[in-house]
Amino acid sequence: MKSIILTVVLAAVIAAALAAVIIKMIMDKKKGKHSCSCGGSCGACPVGCSCGTNQTKKQTK
Fold it and tell me: How far is the C-alpha of 48 from the C-alpha of 36, rounded, in Å?
């Protein structure tokens, strides 16, 4: 019985951490922050042109 309770508690902690990350990502997206962690240098970023700052620059041209 103790192992079941431990498993449920551990699963709840992991689910809460996952929910917190997802909520933060949604809030950042609404604030206009991009999820790309290239540090503003989209040329060095592995996703390159799909970076949020790069896309907004293309749309304004």
Answer: 9
Mean pLDDT along residues 31-56: 62
| Distance, CA of 26 to CA of 14 (rounded, Å) | 19
Name the amino acid, one letter, at 33: K
Identify whether the C-beta of residue 37 lies closer than 8 Å to the C-beta of residue 25: no
Q: How far apart are CA 52 and CA 2, in angstroms?
A: 47
pTM above 0.85, yes or no: no
Task: Report yes or no: 53 and 40 within 8 Å, Cβ to Cβ.
Answer: yes
CB 28 within 8 A of CB 22: no
Q: How would DSSP label each residue in 15-27?
A: HHHHHHHHHHHHH
